[in-house]
Structures
1.
Amino acid sequence: MAGRLSTRVRLIVALAATLVILAPIAWLWQSSLVGNSYSVMGMGYLDYGGGPSGSHDHGSQARSVNDLVVDPARKADVRVDLVAAQQGLVIGSKSVPGYTLNGTSPGPTITVREGQLVEVHLRNASVKAGITLHWHGYDVPAAMDGVAGVTQDEVAVGGEFTYRFVADQVGTYWYHSHQVSNEQVIGGLFGTLVVLPKAGRGDAVDVVATAHTYAGMKTINGAASDVKVPAKPGEQVRVRVINTDNGPIETWADTPFRVLTIDGYPINAPTEVTDRSVTVTAGGRADLGITMPSDGKPVRVQVSKGTAVVLGTGDPAPPPQPTAALDLLTYGGPTALPFDPAQANRHFDYSIGHRPGFVRGAPGLWWSINGHLYPHVPMYVVREGDIVIMHIDNHSGELHPMHLHGHHAVVLARNGVPATGSPWWIDSLNVLDGETYDIAFVANNPGIWLDHCHHLKHAAQGMVAHLMYEGVDTPYRIGGAAGNRPD
Amino acid sequence: MRTAYRVLAYVIAAVVAIQAAAIGYGVFAQLNWIDKGGTLDKATLEGSWPGSGALIFHALEGLAVFIVALALLIVSFFAKIDKGVRWAVIVLAATFVQIALGTLSHLVTASGAVHGAFALILFGLAVTAAMRVHKPSSVAEATPAQVA
């Protein structure tokens, strides 16, 4: 009898111990589920950043993101047709599965003039998962941001979508799919957007160098070989380096150069760089300015160690990689900002960590934002006209290229040290582990905008928050019948 | 339950061995690829290259070990194995330490060295736990059957 009782007690204790272990795990698992279809509007928690929260309206009075477009009556100045396909790519001597736009990867470089209205007509010929086009770094109207499930539905096979925006930002940008982006961008569904000043090209030689790694093969403009460009002694050359990968690249040259722009925005009073590389973060861009040597020597611009742009005639040896990168916090000369960050009325934290838990029901070590895992991440709420300061703090053990849609922010400080060089405008910021950044921007583009890691696999793992304007709503949903999977 | 305990403990040991094989394969596949002209930088590292699948497998399987170790602990509550719960707790704790060392190695490189060596300890602990099943229960030893 005592033995049977002892057995029962033992069983009860065992069941209780099991419950103590499994109950919290089950609760965490359940709370991580997002359902088959959900709106980003209901995700996480509202963060007003210390600003007003009075007229938060996403009901019947709210503007739909669909209404945030350029004047529909205005005729396009430039029309581009893009046809997306899922097909094999030949890179060097290898064939790899991938995607094309108009039969190539990268897709065609779209070159327009400042002020032109650009109309891009996209058709999906065969990309099974559907596609969209996001204009990376271009502060387009919200309806044109191309994020599946947030600003539109994915474009299914046979479907079409037309993007319209005014090219009012001069500089180097790119476009890519924002549907299953962690597969489609890696697979080649992207292209370059160059917006020239009204006066036209200011440089004698203008080179696009779009860097991408296809299945481990480094390329420039889709070719696994150096890009050779004719250039005469004394000519001014602009090399537009675009990093479409998930991690940063370094670029440097065997001749002094200047950094003309970062993320499309000009560097004020750039000085010559001789013994430094330039870090171009994932999704970021850097325009390098080079004066061709008067003695006729060719110039080699390394776009990472594996590939290069060779200017002029000849085949110069690869220059050794500088041991340090240019510090953009102090590069160039200071000049006045178009707004006063001291007047900021919203202060947000974007603190990046790494912790165990569940995301969408899957256990693992996941990226956290302000201590929370997706979807319980902050929804940063602003009102049009607000001045916003965001404090980014990365203690996750890895670097993250942080990308804010629809806005350009200026770097105020890194690790608490104020910026002293040219205003350093970014849409993609390389945040190393252990670093903090303070950035500021004006909330001048109403919509619902992703603020995410542009290591697109990290984004797919839930490293995505949103910036939301008061009174703006979206009818689109992640998942559901449309199959929207933005990351 | 005793069989389940033994099987789970051996599974942990086996997965640790597979983990070691995966990381070895990944490193040498990467070195061979670089020898043939491949370039590895952060941008490449975050994509795919020969050997990257093995490294991803290594990272994901770490989580699998933890889940199996958790199952071992739960099974140990019911298995009536002498010091079975104690050894399951030890294996689970060691798995946690091993994952922590691997994660920490992104910050402190030396932690990676300890992570490699600690895999041998985890392997040994898992095998030791499995071998507990063959030992007679101390409860049985304490209460011998009455003989008329």
2.
Amino acid sequence: MQGSRHPIAGKGAAIAALASSQYLRCNNRGAGIDILTKLRLRYSKTDNAKYISHLDLAAAMRRAFIRAGLELEYSKGFNPHPYISVAMPLSVGMQSVCELMDVGLKAQVEMADLPGQITKYLPSGLEISEAYEPLRKFNELKWLEISGILYYDTVPQDICQKLKTRFCASNIEVLKKTKRGMGTIDIAEYVRDIEFSGTSEVYISAKISAQEPTIKPENILDALGGDFQVLAPDYAVFKRIEAFDSDMLIFR
Amino acid sequence: MQKVQKPARYVGGEYKQIIKNKNEIDIRVAYCFPDTYEIGMSNLGLRIMYGIFNEIDGVWCERTFAPWTDMEDEMRKENIALFGLESGDALTEFDVLAFSIGYELSYTNVLNMLDLAGVALRSTDRDDYAPLVIAGGSSAFNSEPLSEFIDLFVIGDGEEVVAPLMALLRNYFTTPALHADAPHINSATVCSDFKSPKKGILKKAFLAQAAKLPGIYVPSLYCVTHNDDGTISEIAPQSGAQLPVKRRIVSDLNSSFFPVDTIVPSVGLVHDRVVLELFRGCIRGCRFCQAGHITRPVRARSHDILVKQGIEALKSSGYDEVALLSLSTSDYEDIFPLCDGLIEWCEPRRVNLSLPSLRADNFSVELMERVQKVRKSGLTFAPEAGSQRLRDVINKNLTEKELLDTCAVAFEGGWNGIKLYFMLGLPTETDEDIIGIAKLSHDVLNCWKQYAKNKSRGVRITVSTSCFVPKPHTPFQWEPQISMSEYMRRVDLLRSAMKSKAITYKWHSPEQSFVEAVLARGDRNLGKAIEAAWRLGARHDSWSECFSFNTWLEAFHDAGIDPEFYAFRQRDYDEILPWSLVESGVTLAHLKNECKAAYAGIKTPDCREGCSNCGACE
């Protein structure tokens, strides 16, 4: 299997292709009628499954459907591959309980039964919680709520207060990789509702911009450089909690 | 974990991994594969043995692999002992560490894994409370270089040995209470947080009994003495151990275990697919080939069983590829019914059928046409030698005409890439034979010019050479390897004879082949050198980016070993060879006859044309 053959939506292009009307139609060709169901799956990727890479995830899902005896819709052409589209790619090592993925299924299924039906064929740590017909496009997903734990070898005094102050600044410049190389970006307006708590280790929660621009947890940590170096944790883990649209309403 | 590449290699949790309740387990086995996760999980032997161990009540077999260097660094820094992927428990908590050793260049990984597990390297330094360390795989056919590190070797097919061995082991458990003076863990351990005292094994008594089982070799029960010139003077078995040790074989593949419900890794592998084993053994008697000699005779699975197993395994795994495995797939007698049966199921489900190990004959191309209806991938053939004379010497029954006819059909059928594998340094090879490789390659190119339908796409002919490594239990086991400088001279000769830009010539470095040759035909003295190389940092020697020739030279020097004694020496027919304590099935007389026939340039017919009385069927 070669990853490059799989059109997992990284950015906008593949998402747009997926959402096109052609994909949504019910084919009526040849002898029989193909029933095509477009499905959105909400799933979690936790524990050791957090190490499954973006490309391997598609293979894991595809195989789970095959094991369940459900046929996926494949692309036409020389090298057919199933349409599997992930809303927001998740970094290796980061957990999530709010992942979204669209697949095309060549069968009619009972939506309520599907999560359990597929989950039992997935590697441990991948679990589908909901299946439904998608009503919105992925590009309407604007915010992601994340939580995390910051670990310090020695915890600085009043760390939560200091972190809060840092992120209340009106301008938070960080270096960020862009398509044109490294550039600086002010993340202040793209990080909302940031909270810190805890004493021996620091619990962080925040809502970060999911697309245009995509803010990652690492960008938050990058804000703890320079004058704020003392606030930088020695180690940190993050988890996605929920997805929202531009009105801060839960995105499904 | 965040710091290492591909952390998914080290965490388990794959679909169909086997988790058992520890309270119901009395034997914990760690199946140790001395290479990376991706290589190990591509290995059918691992999947078979994992299934067979876990079929036994009370036995839980987990997997562990050689960590890549970045992971090793982290483990040593953080004091993390090597662990089983299923439970995450340190290997010191296991009763048996079972290594699968398929190639010589993984020997340092075996030592490294023992050390990372916190287990002493040498059998003599491990007490009854340290895990029992056993090993199998094709390298066990000359296990002498590892004999100081491994308690027990399983020689030949492992399937039927496991159950009796585990049953025997249960009779020799001991508890720390009975041996209050025994330490719970040995002194060499690196993981200091080991808590609960574990039951031990009365190893000496167990090994003495195990050594009586067919196919089991316990090195500590054999006393090997040497002559002044370094050759072996005597191999003396102690306490009733068998000599020679006969390898085990599965006589009926139809009833032997096949892993239908097999683990499906969550990271992409080298070979990520269902593998169907058509047969073991090989009817061809290629004189350089160890696998073809130690697995004789041919034992085939019936095609209807294979089709059934293939479909079940595809359904269970969700894989989209199935590969047919054997030493020479074209020699499977029911290949057409097999392929038809599989294609019928696979094609509508977008499952590819892959056929490695095909002979270069027209029959193979017909087969390929049949299975690869859409994609024309590359074809790979191994003529091994450039001239008919030399191919007769090595008994590679492939004529130039057959190869070119095959290529003609393939080019006509739309293929435009061919890989050709050769060896340099085969016995009796002359410069003429080497030029023959270039000539044959150009003939293949001309064949493309003549037969290709669409020349605008161009052609890729890749010629690869490697340095011949004489292997134990083959007719060439007495032969010297050519020196590295001679190999490079032959490479240069061949390179200068390659004129066309359409032909890419690649050669493997001779250094790895040299070390491989030393280890392949090594004796017990080499244990010191392997340990020295490991201490100097040798790891993953089969990976060219990790292999350091200077490390090995230093290790040989430190251990007082002359590597050329093992690689370059012509042995006498009546010399006692280190591996002569293992009986591979093929008689010594047959190997000698074959060696003589090689020098006379006489071919030996394959098993179906006529029996050559090699002894393997008895």
3.
Amino acid sequence: MTGLSIFLIGVLSLGAIYAILCLALNLEAGIDGLWDLGLVSFFGVGAYTYTLLTCEPAGAGQHYLLGLGLPMWLGVLAAGAMGALIACLIGLPSLRLRKEYFLITTLAFAQVLQQIYANELWLTNGVAGIYGLPQPLKDYVSPSFHTYAIFTMLLIAVAVAYFLVQRLTLSPFGRRLKALRENENLAMTAGINPFSYHLCSYAAAGFLSGIAGSFYVWYNTLVVPGQFSANITFFVWTAVIIGGLGNNRGALLGGFLFMLINDLLRFLQVSSEMALVLTSLKTSLIGMILILILRLKPTGLCGERKEIIDL
Amino acid sequence: MLEVRDLKKYFSGIKAVDNVCIDVRKNEIVGLIGPNGAGKTTLFNAVTGFTPTTGGKVAFEGFDITALKAHEVARKGIIRTFQTPWGFPRMTLLENMLVFLKGTDAGFWSALMRSKKVNTITADTKDKIIRVLETLALDKKRHDWVQDLSAGELKLMEIARALMAEPKIFLMDEPAAGINPAMQGTLIQLIRDLRMEGGTFLVVDHNLKFICDICDRIYVMSDGRLLCEGPPDRVVCDKSVIECYIGNN
């Protein structure tokens, strides 16, 4: 296994984690029309929940809660459940607000949570974070194939997430979410309670993002508060817009494509000075690609499609 | 069936609806007319929970629905259409209709655990949808996005959508506006047929001929107040109604 293939698999693994986040965002924003700028809240909560439940108790010089050493699959499910719970708690006050106010409130909640990770030493070991976390299958797969094994598991998770989100989207439930996105007042005349439908989609997005958070711990083998800045939310939004808001395939494509654009710049054969410049210009470059795609294909690479229902 | 008692809706001193009382009995077609700004649409909004009332009471089938929210009013069986037709623009006409389909299991868990039933449209429902689409000449547009429909087609779609909900009472806000005369005849026939099947209607429109053709009784509003009430032939001859529509000269 060459270094290049390991690197590529690493990028695609991160792409898979982003793809799950993109699917979550597409469900709540693309289908339901909730402009959420706090997606990273659930991602971070999922990562910390997974870590605190599956890692060993804190050693000397470390402080964090629990450390129960539970099985990883239990940690993944708990991460999803905690993501959904936090979504419900944030959603209860904020989903009653209008679009712009909802957007600001969710961003504020995400910032508050990041401050909690950084400052509540007893809970998360503060800015030092928690290191050396185990990866799954380490004992069962040879080290040379371990990266592939993790990638395969992430691909399976992406497939399951896609299947579930697609199922929700194409159901009468999904149709009602779209109706709310398009015209909330009119949807109410069909007897649709906006709050309860928004809460369901928001909690489902929280669940998926929480699970993605636990996978992020697999990938990095550490959690530090700096990983859960608002940048993640904006990156996921960028990825979904590139792929096509309102289309689950577009969201998948956007997730992988974003990661490839983000990391493949490293392959450019340039001088060390130029590499430094490119690194600092990476975000601008992604912004330019986003503008270009919006100019040439305003609905994204795979825009929303008509749902043809046969009678 | 629908009782509106002393309904008031004030906007910072402007009396948009002032002490209005209206009764709609089961299986009746009642008209509500009046010049622009008379308060007809505000009355509709207050009855359907779109705007909180300043005072008075709205009861439906004996239940007080004054304080209910719009979606709760709709669940009671009151379906309304809008003066300016509304749709879900990036959904097809058929999807728009299915959102309103009565008896749909649209729960989160049902969608996730999807039993076959959840996405299946029964044969009866299919027949009904096809019949409505054909009657309203919308059959060829069923897979078009609503944002691509003309204003007249949007008006017809509103009616098609309302029919999917099988309401106990239809509140129609200017259903004939923007619809060509031939289709207006079809619409009148459709409303009459629905009444034969037990439907109840409260219809707002500016088209007096249309209102007189279909309604059993008509209420006339002006400046937020009720001017008169009665059968069409009596109302159109009423001096105050003529004055309010064409002036006293």
